[in-house]
Amino acid sequence: MRNRLFAWLICLVLTATGGCGKSDRFDTAQTSAPEKQETGAKEPVFRFGIGFSGDGYAVFLKDWKEKVFQETGGDVELELFGGNILGSGSAMCRAVQKGTLSVVATSTSATTDIVPEAAIMDIPGCFPAYSVPHRIYSGEFFEKLNECYEAQGLELLGLRTGEPWIISSGRKTERLSELRGMTVRTSGSRWHNRLYDALGMKRVEDISLGGLTYLLDDGKVDGIETTYEILRTQGLVEKQPYGLNVPFFHMSSSITMNLEAYESLPDEYRKVLKNTLLELMTKEEERMAETVPDGMEFVSFGREDMETLKEAAEPIRKEILDLVDDELKEAFLKENAGRE
């Protein structure tokens, strides 16, 4: 039943957006936009469907939709499909690659099956040279990583890191050893899972954010791999009032488009997509960086526990770096250090 529903929704997106490749709609961009006879309102020349996961993307993407429509004179319309209605982040990334969805906004972890080099964004936070919160990437590193995306039929429109991922819980956790045996709903990233497995946690995956209230009330999970913003928007702060303020990982997200769909646009509209996105992402990260968590108590680990965490994370760091070439790694370190 779920597969049939997913297929139906993808068909709906294709009908609404015209898919991702050039169509009769795209061909009209080279002449003039059609006009609606009955109202005189201009019909968009390009329509692109955007799939996204968490509610945290909703307001931000709505602003982007409005700005793109305005700055292209109504020629480009973005249609939003949120709440994982089109499937998981990984499924939506594959749909974008195949051309059955135009754009996806999701964590970079969801793209690593297609673009292995994107795993560089998943290096654990206990290695601060490689993991910086609230960073917007738009320089040399962004361009080099985008080459990896383009090789897979994708175009990277925007890339950022946000808040630290935390482990929230209903009881205070003060030592690393207390995580052993804890049942945690994780984000699903295989790199995150590798670290949590090494720390002895029990993982629960493929549970939607909407289902967490039931699982918490029923005692089926002890904690959540999450961010404060996710807890706040899902109304879960009261149920998970404690958080480990420990650099496990930093949230990283990307806005990715089907390459053929991107190249169907005139150059000026490509610039509008990327420039408006960069502007809005910058404002969003500035807002989030200034947000003071309310209603939660955060606990940090001592030096001994931090050293143990770093030892557990080192094999993951090395394995990820083996996936990227030296030029990409150096550009990443350079941009993280604030050097252009």
Automatic annotation (TrEMBL):
Transmembrane segments: none annotated. The keyword Signal applies. It comes from the Bacteria. Pfam families: DctP. Keywords: Signal. InterPro entries: DctP_fam, TRAP_DctP_sf. One of its GO terms (biological process) is transmembrane transport. Gene3D superfamilies: Bacterial extracellular solute-binding protein, family 7. This is TRAP-type C4-dicarboxylate transport system, substrate-binding protein.
